[in-house]
Amino acid sequence: MGQTLINILLFVVMLSVIISIHEFGHFIVAKMNHVYVYEFSIGMGPLLFQKKGKETVYSIRAIPIGGYCAMAGEDDKENVQEVYKNDAVIPDERTLNHIPWYRQIAIMLAGPVMNFLLAWIIFISLYASLGYRIDPAPAYINTVSPGSPAEAAGLMSGDKILRLTYEDGSFIEPATFTAMVEENMFHKDETVVYTVERGGATVDCKVTPVYDETQDRYLIGISSPEPTVVEIKGMEVIRTANRYFAENAGLIFKVLGKLLRGKGMENLSGPIGIYTATAQEIQYGFISFLALVGVLSLNIGIMNLLPIPIFDGGRILIALIEAILRKPLSEKVKNAIMSASLGLILLLMVVVTFNDISRLFR
Q1: Distance of CA 21 to the CA centre of its chain
Q2: Closest Cα to residue 218, out of 205, 227, 209, 226?
Q3: Which domain holds residue 297?
Q4: Same domain assignment for residues 150 and 126
Q5: Which one of 226, 245, 268 terminates a domain?
Q6: Extended beta strands in the chain, E state
Q7: Which of 137, 160, 167, 240 has its CA 20 to 30 A from that of 206?
Q8: Residue 77 belongs to what H/E stretch?
């Protein structure tokens, strides 16, 4: 029970920090561009604490998973001012939708950029404290489990994996064992042709994975060689953090690309899945938990750049369209776009919640 409470507390703190950092980015750049900010809130829901600044109300609210930066021009002026009991006369040039388009984009970009900065600082701190990095093992087969699908297909210890060809005709030529595992996530129960090099000859082996209930995943029964541990210090720490940042960002974009083609929906997770991952990483220690915070911050930054109007990326897209048209879109069009994007997000939430619950029952 005690560990569960710690897990919940750290999960809440993690999401609160990531989202507050994001909203703080919007807040700072909005202020720099003289946009009127009604409220900057850490948390959502019922009010716990509030302090009125010169213009902005600073709040802490009861539900710590969330936060927001309420700027003039985001919503109907009269309704917003009524909510905030604010009777200030706000000139158009201080509202978000009346400043130049490039300033709007700067404000929208600031949130994701702060998430990227948080992730980058965390990755540098982690590698600086560890003093080493782990380079993934090459795409060789170390061992083959007796009685496994890999053994039945003819794969052998020492085989160099040259290519994996999937049922849909796609293929990869993995440079590392990790790259192969990542791609196989999108082809869990498919028969895959492993093209391997053995004794100077090329051999094709068809392998169909089997589901392992204890590990809740499909396996073929092979293991990788040991990865390489490399000591790092100085500028190599920053270079390693940059590479880790780029690799994780690349994997996120790869997953998004797969989703657009209808693959990998079952891999998506929502709050329940994130909590489960948090609880698992806490078991491995603070370093693993902090790495998860960095990866999630990077994920949230990239997701917010998607060109869906309810996200920052969608607002950036609308600002660019208005800049090209040289006139604002009508409120009717904006409301229709927002409603459609909200419907899409709600559908996505249903999918990820179903996935999370299914994993819990498994």
Answers
A1: 15
A2: 209
A3: 102-131+234-362
A4: no
A5: 226
A6: 37-52, 57-71, 132-135, 143-144, 160-165, 171-172, 192-198, 201-207, 210-212, 217-219, 222-223, 228-231
A7: 137
A8: helix 77-83
Tokens of 177: 């064992």
Cα–Cα distance for residue pair 24/50, rounded to 1 Å: 17
Express each pLDDT in 177-227 by its tens digit: 999 998 888 888 889 999 999 998 999 999 999 988 777 788 899 999 999
Residues near 259 by beta carbon (within 8 Å), at least 6 away in sequence: 265, 268
Cα–Cα distance between 320 and 113 in angstroms, integer?
19
Q: How far apart are CA 210 and CA 219, in angstroms?
A: 5
CA distance readout (Å), 236 to 125, 133, 138, 230, 288: 13, 10, 22, 11, 21
**Per-residue pLDDT tens for 20-61?**
999 999 999 999 999 999 999 998 889 899 998 888 999 999
In angstroms, rounded to a whole number, what is the distance separating the alpha carbons of residues 42 and 40? 7
Q: Could you give the CA distance from residue 6 to residue 282 in angstroms, rounded to a whole number?
A: 9
Indicate whether 46 belongs to any domain.
no
Residue of 193, 302, 308, 195 lying closest to 254 (CA atoms)? 302
